[in-house]
Design brief:
This protein has 498 residues and is α/β, with parallel strands linked by helices. Helices cover 41% and strands 12% of the residues. It folds into 3 domains: 94 residues, Winged helix-like DNA-binding domain superfamily/Winged helix DNA-binding domain (Arc Repressor Mutant, subunit A), CATH 1.10.10.10; 240 residues, 3-Layer(aba) Sandwich (Aspartate Aminotransferase, domain 2); 101 residues, Aspartate Aminotransferase, domain 1. β4, α11 and β5 form a beta-alpha-beta unit.
Amino acid sequence: MPPNLLLSGLMALPTERPPEGVNLQEWLYLELRDAMLVGRLPAGSKLPGSRTLASHLCVARGTVQAAYQQLLSEGYVVSRPGSGTRVCMELPDAKLRITSSQQSAGVKIPARRMPPVTDWGERLKSITSAFAKRRVAPGLRPFFPMRCDVQSFPIDLWRKLHIQQMRSSKVETLLDYEPAGLPSLRLAIAEHVGSARGVQVSADNIVVLSSVQQGIDLCLRLLAPPRARVWMEDPGYPGVRQLMALAGCEVVDVPVDQQGLRVQDGIQAAPEAALAYVTPSRHMPCGHELSPPRRLALLHWARASGAYIIEDDYDSEYRFIAKPIPALRAMAGADDLVILAGTFSKLLFPSVRLAYLVLPQHLVDVFTRAVALTSRHPNSLSQAVLAAFFNQGHFDRHVRRMRKLYSLRAEALNCAASQHWQGLIEVPEIRAGLDTPCSLLVGDEAEACRRIEEVNVDVLPLARFYKAPSSPGFLLGFAAYEERSIFDAALAVRKALI
């Protein structure tokens, strides 16, 4: 081996093979790159030939060639016929960061000009998301709301249906599907909303999405012009209010009472609003139903003003005292005015991430195009499994079983409140849903929440749902918790508040 080559190249390279099990190509690439970065292989220096280095390290020549090729593709070396492989005069890392030697020499590097974000991005900075990252306890703690009981979901059956969809005879399940959703699932949803919600509609009017939040976002993009005024329930679901603000809409907060949205107040405040968001079958968070006269008034206003109504039907399937009341979309004359949004996250389990919109016929094409462009379509395999879950009758059986179970847990919460919370917290009769609002009769809401959390119980302050000042209280979940846990947590809350 020529001595000049040894001195110029091999002395700067590793002399021992790596430990057993290490990928030789990756190891050699990293060793060579590090030697260049720290100056052992200076800029412009020539690397040994691949045959020479392979012999020196006792590795295959192909391993050396592959490492050289990776360095070449990343801009660390150049290779020219007759000149061999040499270290680049300027390494790619030097273009991205200031080295310690440059800093010590006082070399001034111009500051990068940060491009501004859009107005949408600026609005996003000012919004504390309703879905912000939060602590996840090892198990669900009473009384965190808006949660179904995933422990009671027939997960073995779901796994079996999933495996069936993965058979080789159903390989088409792995392909892309229509942006509007899997046809068999859209048909199943159309039949479901017809029998359970009174909405007689074709499968062609259904668009499958990953969440109701996505559906409302599309409604705001497609149906609310810039700076449009939109009605929002007060109190109401904070995630929707935040989407409205993010879209650049002027949010008009319309009060809610025991008969639901006060439609005349909305008309007086913003008769020309482009959209109205409502939860008419079970208001979020108060639990009231929109009265028949106000339903008619809302539809009359929408038709007269050219507005659309977004009906969020998030958990009205779970009504304990009688059959669920029909959706607003089921009323005569509502077909071209109301967009019904539903989700399976509350009916099945949160991570299923499947929801739907029931659209007026004249909006189907534009919404389908929007879905195709922005998200393509939700997971096709999950759609196929859910369609089978529907078609084999499992969905209806599951909802009936959970309705009975949740009714017992609602009764347990009422009993626990009567036993432990007299003079502290007032809980109304629970008639539907996964959670219930309650009134705090003593002390400050924020302080009460802090003290309750210290005893390992979760509650959600009602102030989070209100724009206007509100009476202190909590939103308490009961559906996800066993009766024993409900009584134990109620006792813990009492000790925290007295």
